Amino acid sequence: MRYLTAGESHGPQLTTIIEGVPAGLYIEQDDINYELARRQKGHGRGRRMQIEKDQAKVLSGVRHGRTLGSPIALVVENNDWKHWTKVMGAEPITEEEESEMKRQISRPRPGHADLNGAIKYGHRDMRNVLERSSARETTVRVAAGAVAKQILAYLGIKVAGHVLEIGGVKAAHTAYESIEDLQKVTEESPVRCYDSEAGQKMMDAIDEAKKNGDSIGGIVEIIVEGMPVGVGSYVHYDRKLDSKLAGAVLSINAFKGVEFGIGFEAASKNGSEVHDEIIWDEEKGYTRKTNRLGGLEGGMSTGMPIVVRGVMKPIPTLYKPLQSVDIETKEPFSASIERSDSCAVPAASVVAEAVVAWEIANAVVEQFGLDQIDRIKENVQKMRQLQREF
Questions:
Q1: Cα-Cα end-to-end distance for the chain
Q2: How many CB atoms lie within 10 A of CB 29?
Q3: How many other CB atoms are there within 10 angstroms of residue 314's CB atom?
Q4: Which of 3, 31, 178, 290 could form a disulfide linkage to 18, CB 3.0–4.6 angstroms apart?
């Protein structure tokens, strides 16, 4: 499977075309819109989330609630487009109109793609860069992830995400009873934190950062349960599942680090404290006593829960100005504000769920069959049986 996205932050719409979704999968627009609504929530979000009420339209590839096997086109319209038709329209404009154009940007913001993108593509107006590099694009990535989640749910694979840390405040109580318990509790938390006491401290930290004109980042964790053994492969670097998951997580705007299981903690431990001992019983087949490696060994799933974490840096758009240089005058200035979220970590947790779900679904579809969802389900069940009997 694969998908492409198109659209600018203040353009008329965001679009994704998804190719390779198996035929026969039941899916509704409400399934997608539920995930889009989750992305818009979270303590610390800015005014843009009050303007946009994201709703996906399925324009192809689904008939009467069932996927056809043909490309699926999803569109999310930007409500704010009506205020940007002149600035972001596709029609040519005169030199006079261009010289009078408002909202042109010649002052790059530190931490953004503005300057690097302008140099790369030769844009004197850096709005041409920031409109596409904006995290608004993740809207349709979440839509694609919603489709992937439906594939996985049909195959008995569950995906959930939560926030472990914001602004140095760490969740202490993270031992959930089940993945459903984790989902229920974190959906009720404004910061998607399982630990309610830590969640309140996280909100206080966000409010303090906003009051100071600053922003804060954090750590999110994604868990995938119900995986069959052997998804991915050890035979080549670009077929390793953990490699694909790492690339997906780091492709999210502002994410700067990723780890699996105990992750970087492994560097300070002995091997006997890191590797998971193998056990077997008739009911489950081969499992592990622990899950320190996060459900992945040799680039393949072990059947244990996949646990992946991503680190999100603080959003670089600040009320507290940082120094930059105007590309036209070469004079120093204090960087301007284009968006005012003080923290987007809770929303980023939803995006991380989506990209992880996509990579898992893609790997499963590729490995267990391509065209029909029921055939894929049969093959997954056979692999689970093999895991018990091997």
A1: 30
A2: 16
A3: 20
A4: 3
Distance CA 6, CA 90 (A): 14
The full set of domains in the chain, from first to last, is 2-389 (3.60.150.10)
Contact 73, 58 (CB under 8 A): yes
CA 152 to chain centre: 16
Three-state secondary structure call for residue 9: coil
pTM flag (> 0.85): yes
Sign of CA dihedral 342, 343, 348, 350: negative
Taking the C-alpha atoms of residue 351 and residue 361, their distance in angstroms, rounded to an integer, is 15
Contact between residue 24 and residue 65 where contact means Cβ atoms under 8 Å apart: no
Tokens coding 44: 């610390």
Q: Is the dihedral of CA 132, 143, 192, 245 positive or negative?
A: negative
Please report which residue ranges of the chain form alpha helices under DSSP H. Answer: 29-40, 48-51, 85-88, 95-99, 114-121, 127-133, 138-154, 179-187, 196-211, 241-250, 345-368, 373-389
Question: Which pLDDT tens digit goes with each residue over 193-244?
Answer: 999 999 999 999 999 998 888 899 999 999 999 999 999 999 999 999 999 9
Q: If residue 332 lies in a helix (H) or strand (E), which one and from where to where?
A: strand 332-334
- Which pair of structure tokens corresponds to residue 65? 């609630």
- CA 101/CA 261 separation, integer angstroms: 51
Which residues are within 8 A (CB) of 13 and not within 5 positions of it... i.e. 6 or more apart?
A: 7, 75, 76, 77, 78, 81
CA angle 322, 325, 327 (to 5 degrees): 145
